[in-house]
């Protein structure tokens, strides 16, 4: 509280400070152990304990397959249940708990219609139910809800709350209602293969139709929402109590105990206002469907070691989804591809493949819709050569391969960007009484780009695979990619054109890198087998062209910078005294700057701190270099394996609720409020945590102090298993039985605050959970 | 085997007949293509009328005008503001750093889609399209062509004028541009002005002298004449004589000023000779003076006034509360508007500079500027606010003045230091560091505009509405006088 007072003082805000008596009252309460989550007068709540619990999950799967003379079948049914890590109790009218329940199924049937005709049908799908509440932003409330303003429930049984309603996260999750989502996915395939060996051996034609659909429907129950009122009105149905105690004037009772009078108190919600909940049923939230069909001819034949395959195929796709506003299905997105492929393989020694795609999309104007994208690859397995035979004892495999290929991308295209479309809009009124409507009126939506076409990506890959003693395998890949004509909205067309412009083929990006994989497989004795895999991958990319406007300062141009580059203010220190504050460049966001606050660099030296002073950071918010390592062993039915993963060079902005004290404006600080800048520590170390504030605008900008290294090393997965010996099982008609225990995300080494998961972006995201699974795998 | 060849043949035929391109073609019935704009007089007018929606509404906070209220007054140092609603940029004007707002804001000097400058470009595009393509519309009568194309010329001139006012000489923006032909050279102010006059002359020739009852509000011949005289007066001023290379002190263009005067006179003659419904307010007529009070705000419905020559008839509706927000946020002390937080911290007040500009009557009965010793003006003395130009009392609220009612009792404006407004502003953390002068402008508000009155329609904040008037008859007289001077 003393710190809070200091923050208020720094804000030049002298109301609402805590008096010495109040601070003393709390100190006594701590000393006497009167503080707790359900203490009326001295509440203190660890929201993490109150809100987060151990979640459980279950997973079952049954597979069946079999065959007869003319058909084969496979069927599988699965069930999954994920319980919640958030605490909540089932209510009489609704169920606010978080859980996820999913059923999935798959069945394949293959029919031999004739001896040369194969007909296959496959049906698969899943139905999932996800339950949650209306209280969003859940994880954030764990961090920044007030801890000492109110108890979870007062001793009279009412939920505790602030004078401003809605601060109690446990009450919010429990009392607001229920959301129940039903998510359906379905996949349906049928295909026909006809062998044409009577024309020439190895020839066949094939056709396939597949259809998939997904939908999400939502049921809701809103507490007290029977008349369709606002959220605030609905909350009237749950009474919450707030009290403000007069800590300054303790009342000494005759028996020596101390009590405090209530200064002000009240209730949110009304006793006589207990309304039934409102419900909505099966409101469609999302829907999409995709239809795909193709026909093709395939050929495969082997003449004296010359293996040749060829394929020619035409396919079409038709995709529709639902727009939310206005609610309707979009006009289908269509594409049509003509594909050809020839492969050649001579005794696994010389390998070659040529592909050609002639791809069409409805994203571009007539004439620009089809793009030709060829590719080829060649490979040479050196160890298959006769002259290498002597070396095979130690060099078990050596293969060199190279590929070059082009592909097309149309995702950046503006929908109907090649048509000059006008939109119909409402009336304009004129007339003596301004009541004569003229309309409809028409406005232009954008300037079309009739020349836009496919953006092209040209990839090259050179790979070497080596194997030694049949134990060590090394594979090294060097790749290079150049993307050209990336579809982007032009930035250099003058604004006086007077309309928006559809995306055009503008950008160019290059990207290259290395992938390395080393594997070791061996055994000690006859029973102990072990393995280790190490993978390393690094890459680098640059925007080689973007139409940067001429007026942009060089350091804010896209050209020459990596994709997704970020800019930040540069903080160089803390103000030492009030003279520094006034002598430094001023910013538009500065409020109540005091010594100890951050000093920003006026990068372009124009006397003011604004967006133009943000400069590019060295690092990106995605990893360019990653390492992974897995190893394990098997010994007499026991198995062990684990996977480590480490991305490096990832920098992200630390969420300010985890960085500064008093994130919610209440007396709740970070664990280290005393680590702030003070005059005494001013000259000891470099950049320090800034002076305390309630209003943090000045310090809470996007700058290098908040920009932290999110690299980590994580033990992603560990599994220990034991398989029962076969002899035991055969008596029980079980062909396999394995007990296993797995753990996910068990260990993480990170540089940032431990409360933050380095894989997520904000403090509000559902955290990546650490999970343990125990199970049995049975095969009959 | 033959059968399979037939299969293949059939498949190939199916794919080719449905046609590779046809399959990918857009359904013809989706959306309106450009040709459909040129089907009739009505569709062409429907496109042109979008221009009207780009006219600025400078009096009320709402979408595009949200950040603009009071800009001219702040820029000319007549107003000190503490506005903080959203990212309102007005406080930046006081720091002089307003040009920094050009890139990341939809503010006056910005180029984003909501900024007035960009709205001018969008409107010009529409007017250009109509002018270039009206001949594609079949069966338009001579009168229809005059109406729709005349308005298009007017809009083109008006929005071009709005750009020139802000940015000086502009490139010729008189054709529909696309990504191939937007690279046009910049002209001097005078060259731009000549393009403007060409358009206005065509508009004056084509537009009716007034519209029939069903079309009142559209720009007419008188409006075009008004813009012509007004823009000529602008073009005659010293700053506008400069070329593109340098800005130096230049003399007035007296010939152009004379031309402006001639055109102003022509307009005044025209409205008195023809039945256009426009005239100057008669100061000796009581009814006239009563309605003149409603020049800036008016009781709804009320779209016209004899004084208006060119004005924006749209105003905010009851539903979006912008009317109320404007007054509460911009013009009132927090205890009168009962707002909280940033809204309460915001207020725009006339500067002391503007208050000082009102003359004071000296002991000899003659009004002198306040810095003239003969005015008897004593800085800081209570007498400083006595015997001032009557317009001071008409425009500025001074302490001690009765101003409507508060809880059914007469409300008197308190003194500034120690008064309610002062207490509120300086206890609010959001406004304590801002500057306030303590004067309130009553030009734009009415005594009933405070929270003690009801919040329903026709009460309190809702008694009157704002609309934006670009040219009034009075202005033409003033232009006439200035041009002759």
Structure, explained:
The complex is a heterodimer of chains A (780) and B (485). Chain A contains 8 helices and 37 strands. By secondary structure, chain A is mainly beta. Chain A has a 22-stranded antiparallel sheet that branches. In chain A, strands 5-8-9 form a 3-stranded mixed sheet, covered by helices on one side. The longest helix of chain A has 13 residues, at 20-32. Chain A is globular, with a radius of gyration of 34 Å. Chain B has 485 residues and is mainly alpha-helical. Chain B contains 19 helices and 13 strands. The longest helix of chain B is centred in the N-terminal third of the chain and has 26 residues, at 142-167. Chain B is globular and about 75 Å long. Classes of the chains: A mainly beta (780), B mainly alpha (485). The interface between A and B is large, with 69 and 69 residues.
Query: Which stretches of chain A are low in confidence, meaning pLDDT under 50 for 5 or more residues running?
Result: none
What's the assembly state of these chains? heterodimer
Unreliable runs of chain B, pLDDT <50, ≥5 residues? 62-66
Please state the average pLDDT score of chain B. Answer: 80
- Termini separation of chain A comes to 66 Å
User: What's the total helix number of chain B?
Assistant: 19
């Amino acid at each position: 509280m003393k710190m809070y007072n200091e923050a208020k003082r720094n804000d030049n805000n002298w109301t609402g400070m805590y008096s010495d008596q109040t601070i003393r009252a709390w100190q006594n309460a701590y000393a006497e152990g009167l503080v707790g989550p359900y203490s009326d007068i001295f509440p203190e709540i660890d929201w993490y304990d109150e809100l987060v619990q151990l979640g459980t999950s279950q997973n079952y799967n049954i597979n069946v397959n079999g065959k007869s003379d003319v058909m084969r079948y496979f069927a599988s049914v699965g069930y999954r249940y994920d319980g919640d890590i958030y605490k909540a109790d089932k209510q009489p009218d609704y169920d606010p708990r978080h859980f996820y329940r999913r059923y999935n199924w798959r069945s394949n049937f293959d029919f031999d219609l004739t001896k040369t005709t194969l007909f296959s049908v496959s049906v698969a799908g899943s139905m999932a139910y996800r339950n949650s509440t209306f209280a969003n932003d859940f994880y954030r409330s764990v961090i920044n809800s007030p801890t000492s303003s109110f108890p979870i429930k007062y001793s009279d049984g009412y939920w505790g709350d602030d004078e401003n309603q809605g601060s109690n996260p446990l009450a919010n999750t429990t009392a607001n209602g229920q959301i129940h989502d039903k998510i359906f996915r379905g996949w349906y395939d049928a295909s026909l293969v006809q062998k044409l060996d009577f024309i020439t051996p190895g020839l066949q034609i094939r056709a396939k139709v597949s259809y998939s659909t997904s939908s999400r429907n939502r049921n809701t129950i809103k507490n007290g929402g029977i008349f369709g009122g606002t959220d605030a009105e609905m909350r009237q149905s749950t009474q919450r109590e707030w009290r403000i105690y007069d800590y300054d004037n303790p009342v000494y009772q005759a028996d020596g105990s101390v009590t405090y009078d209530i200064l002000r108190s009240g209730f949110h919600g009304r006793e006589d206002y207990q309304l039934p909940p409102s419900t909505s049923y099966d409101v469609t939230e999302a829907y999409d469907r995709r239809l795909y069909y193709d026909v093709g001819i395939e050929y495969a034949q082997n003449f004296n070691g010359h293996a040749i395959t060829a394929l020619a195929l035409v396919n079409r796709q038709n995709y529709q989804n639902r727009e939310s506003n206005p609610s309707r299905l979009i006009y289908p997105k269509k594409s049509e591809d003509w594909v050809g492929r020839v492969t050649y393989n001579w005794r696994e020694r010389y390998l070659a493949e040529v592909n050609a795609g002639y791809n069409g999309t409805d994203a571009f104007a007539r004439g620009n819709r089809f793009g030709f994208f060829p590719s080829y690859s060649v490979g040479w397995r050196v160890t298959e050569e006769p002259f290498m035979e002597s070396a095979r004892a130690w060099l078990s495999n050596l293969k060199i391969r190279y590929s070059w290929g082009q592909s097309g991308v149309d995702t950046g295209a503006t929908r109907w960007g090649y048509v000059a479309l006008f939109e119909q809009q409402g009336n304009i009124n004129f007339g003596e009484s301004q009541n004569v409507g003229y309309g409809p009126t028409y406005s232009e939506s954008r300037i079309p780009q009739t020349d836009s076409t496919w953006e092209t990506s040209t990839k090259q890959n050179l790979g070497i695979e080596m194997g030694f003693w049949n134990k060590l395998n090394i594979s090294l890949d060097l790749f290079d990619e150049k993307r050209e004509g990336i579809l982007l909205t032009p930035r250099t067309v003058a604004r006086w054109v007077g309309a928006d412009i559809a995306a055009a083929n503008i950008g160019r990006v290059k990207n290259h890198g290395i992938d390395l994989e080393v594997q070791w497989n061996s055994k000690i004795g006859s029973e102990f087998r072990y393995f280790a895999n190490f993978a390393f991958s690094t890459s680098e990319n640059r925007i080689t062209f973007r139409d940067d406007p001429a007026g942009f300062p060089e350091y804010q141009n896209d050209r020459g910078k990596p994709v997704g580059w970020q800019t930040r203010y540069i903080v160089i220190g803390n103000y030492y005294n009030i003279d520094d504050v006034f002598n430094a460049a001023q910013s538009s966001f500065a409020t109540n700057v005091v010594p100890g606050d951050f000093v920003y660099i006026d990068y372009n030296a124009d006397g003011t701190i604004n967006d133009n002073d943000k400069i590019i950071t060295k690092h990106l918010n995605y990893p360019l270099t990653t390492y992974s390592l897995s190893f394990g062993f098997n010994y007499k039915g026991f198995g062990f394996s684990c996977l480590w993963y480490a991305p490096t060079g990832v920098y992200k902005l630390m969420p300010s609720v985890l960085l500064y004290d008093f994130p919610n404006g209440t007396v709740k600080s970070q664990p280290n409020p005393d680590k702030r800048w003070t005059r005494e520590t001013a000259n000891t170390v470099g950049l320090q945590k800034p002076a305390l504030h309630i209003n943090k605008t000045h310090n809470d900008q996007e700058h290098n102090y908040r920009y932290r290294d999110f690299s980590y090393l994580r033990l992603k997965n560990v599994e220990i298993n034991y398989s029962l010996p076969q002899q035991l099982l055969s008596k029980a008609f079980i062909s396999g039985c394995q007990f296993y225990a797995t753990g996910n995300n068990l260990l993480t080494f990170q540089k940032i605050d431990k409360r933050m998961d380095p894989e997520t972006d904000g403090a509000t995201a559902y955290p990546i959970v650490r999970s343990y699974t125990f199970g049995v795998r049975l095969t009959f | 085997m033959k059968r399979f060849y037939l299969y293949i043949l059939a498949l190939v035929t199916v794919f080719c007949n449905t046609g590779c391109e046809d399959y990918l073609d857009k359904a013809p019935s989706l959306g309106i293509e450009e040709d459909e704009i040129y089907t009739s007089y009505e569709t062409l007018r429907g496109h042109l009328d979008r221009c009207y929606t780009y006219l600025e509404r400078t009096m009320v906070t709402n979408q595009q005008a949200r950040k603009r209220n009071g800009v001219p007054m702040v820029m000319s140092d007549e107003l000190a503001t503490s506005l903080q609603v959203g990212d309102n940029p007005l406080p930046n004007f006081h720091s002089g750093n307003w040009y920094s707002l050009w890139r990341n804001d939809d503010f006056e000097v910005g180029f984003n889609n909501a900024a007035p400058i960009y709205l001018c470009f969008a409107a010009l595009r529409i007017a250009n399209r109509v002018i270039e393509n009206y001949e594609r519309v079949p069966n338009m009568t001579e009168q229809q062509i005059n109406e729709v194309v005349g308005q298009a010329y007017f809009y083109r001139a008006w929005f071009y004028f709005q750009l020139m006012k802000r940015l000086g000489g502009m490139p010729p923006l008189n054709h529909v541009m696309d990504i191939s032909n937007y690279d046009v050279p910049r002209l001097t102010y005078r060259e731009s002005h000549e393009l403007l006059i060409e358009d206005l002359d065509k508009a004056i020739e084509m537009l009716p002298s007034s519209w029939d009852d069903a079309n009142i509000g559209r720009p007419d011949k008188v409006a075009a004449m008004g813009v012509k005289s007004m823009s000529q007066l602008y073009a005659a001023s010293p700053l506008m004589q400069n070329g593109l290379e340098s800005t130096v002190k230049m003399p007035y263009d007296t010939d152009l000023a004379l031309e402006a005067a001639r055109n102003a006179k022509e307009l005044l003659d025209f409205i008195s000779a023809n039945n256009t419904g426009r005239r100057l307010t008669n100061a000796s007529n009581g009814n006239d003076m009563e309605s003149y009070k409603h020049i800036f705000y008016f009781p709804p419905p009320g779209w016209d006034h004899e004084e208006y020559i060119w004005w924006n008839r749209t105003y905010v509706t009851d539903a979006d509360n912008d009317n109320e927000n404007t007054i509460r946020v911009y013009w009132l002390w927090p205890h009168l508007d009962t707002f909280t937080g940033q809204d309460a911290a915001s207020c725009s007040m006339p500067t002391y500079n503007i208050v000082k500009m009102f003359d004071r009557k000296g002991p000899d009965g003659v009004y002198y500027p306040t810095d003239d010793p003969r005015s008897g003006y004593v800085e800081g003395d209570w007498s400083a606010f006595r015997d001032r130009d009557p317009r001071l009392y008409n425009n500025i609220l001074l302490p001690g003045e009765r101003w409507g009612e508060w809880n059914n009792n007469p409300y008197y404006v308190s003194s500034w230091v120690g008064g309610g407004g002062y207490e509120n502003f300086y206890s609010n953390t959001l406004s304590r560091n801002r500057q306030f002068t303590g004067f309130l402008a009553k030009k734009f508000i009415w005594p009933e505009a405070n929270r003690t009155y009801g919040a329903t329609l026709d009460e309190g904040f809702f008694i009157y509405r704002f609309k934006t008037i670009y040219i009034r008859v009075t202005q033409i007289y003033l232009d006439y006088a200035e041009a002759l001077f």
